[in-house]
């Protein structure tokens, strides 16, 4: 993973919204993981909203995010081997609490 500035991560998130990019989102905290396949639906003052094709919603507050990084399938966390080779990049956001969100941009070729 390559560290990036918050403004750079914001540009990638805006691209995801504008282009309606298909993603798999993985939210991890305290040994609990939530995986959702869908799109970044919108950006808010406090963060982002991810909607699945089935209507499930994951709202993420990014105000206290401490680390932003961009990676590829060499950086896959455990439990996501099924997406190996199926995505172009991964935007990862981390918090001081240890929580992490990974947004995998799915290949649409």
**Biggest beta sheet attributes:** 8 strands, antiparallel
Main CATH class: Alpha Beta
Q: Give the % helix.
A: 10-25%
- β-sheet strand percentage: over 45%
| Name of the CATH superfamily | HemS/ChuS/ChuX like domains
CATH architecture: 3-Layer(aba) Sandwich
Silhouette: globular
Tell me, rounded to a whole number, the average pLDDT.
88
Structural class: mainly beta
Report on the structure:
This protein starts with a strand and ends with a strand. The protein is globular. The mean pLDDT is 88. It has 109 residues and is mostly beta strands. The chain has a single domain, classed as Heme iron utilization protein-like fold. Helix content is 13%, strand content 50%. A hairpin with a 3-residue loop joins β3 and β4. An eight-stranded antiparallel beta sheet has the order 1-6-7-8-2-3-4-5, covered by helices on one side. The longest helix is centred in the N-terminal third of the chain and has 14 residues.
């Amino acid at each position: 993973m390559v560290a990036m500035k918050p403004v750079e991560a914001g540009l990638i998130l805006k691209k995801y919204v504008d282009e309606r990019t298909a993603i798999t989102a993985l939210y991890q905290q305290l040994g609990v993981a939530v995986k959702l396949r869908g799109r970044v639906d919108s950006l808010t003052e406090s963060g982002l909203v991810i909607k699945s094709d089935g209507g499930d919603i994951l709202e993420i507050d990014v105000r206290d995010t401490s680390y932003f990084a961009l990676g590829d399938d060499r950086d896959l966390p455990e439990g996501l081997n099924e997406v190996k080779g199926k995505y172009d990049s991964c935007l990862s956001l981390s918090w001081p609490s240890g929580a992490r969100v990974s947004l995998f941009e799915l290949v649409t070729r």
